[in-house]
Amino acid sequence: MLGHHYTQSFLETAVASVNAGCNLELSYGMRNNVFMRIPQALAMGNITLQMLRDRVRPLFYTRMRLGEFDPPAMNPYSSLDLSVVQSPEHRNLSLEAAVKSFVLLKNVRGTLPLRAQDLSSQHFAVVGPFADNPRVLFGDYAPVPEPQYIYTPRRGLEMLGANVSFAAGCREPWCRWYSRAELVRVVGAADVVLVCLGTGVDVETEAKDRSDLSLPGHQLELLQDAVQ
């Protein structure tokens, strides 16, 4: 609310939020956030103790139902580790969800899906700043992934036994520096070309917007060179 000039201070924001029923803040940090002003607002009489109790009650009720205050031995989730979270069953389910969430806008001459029997007989070129950079594949508010479980387009094809050549063309999504020669060398010898472009959190995220929908930097040039 402060950022949108609805209020003029953190104190005023805390009062308005609590009075409106908000009981949880995505805070700026441990020392400087809006709800740290609640004691001051209470002392000034802007909010009441009963109101605070009403706001806190559902939070602690939820935490109790989740078992946060139980001894670890009583909580079956406290023993879960990567062997469970990244079990073959869970990874297969994640793969199924990823496959079923793709949106294919145009499939000229039935190009996709690629047939498994063709992977070893064809030469694939995987190009672009998103082709083999695990760091840029995750969106805003994504969890921090374990590197061994990240499959870039290049790594995924190689795991399937495909004959793959790779060229980033540009090393980061902004694509300020672009090597056309690197791209042409790899694409020219390929039967199938996969161009991996986009934005990612380096270019746009919460509170960091773009002024247009164009591909960043030289990415459009990279795409046009690959097609040509």
UniProtKB/TrEMBL annotation:
Gene3D superfamilies on file: Glycoside hydrolase family 3 C-terminal domain, Glycoside hydrolase, family 3, N-terminal domain
User: Can you supply a Gene Ontology BP term from the record?
Assistant: arabinan catabolic process
State which gene encodes it: Xyl2
What InterPro entries does its record include? BXL, GH, Glyco_hydro_3_C, Glyco_hydro_3_C_sf, Glyco_hydro_3_N_sf
Q: Which UniProt keywords apply?
A: Glycosidase, Hydrolase
Listed GO MF terms: alpha-L-arabinofuranosidase activity; xylan 1,4-beta-xylosidase activity
Organism for this UniProt entry: Pheucticus melanocephalus (Black-headed grosbeak)
List each coiled-coil range. Answer: none
Q: Which domain of life is it from?
A: Eukaryota
Which protein, by its recorded name, is this? XYL2 arabinofuranosidase
Which Pfam families is this protein grouped with?
Answer: Glyco_hydro_3_C
Boundaries of every Glycoside hydrolase family 3 C-terminal domain copy: 103-226
Q: Does the entry feature the keyword Hydrolase, yes or no?
A: yes
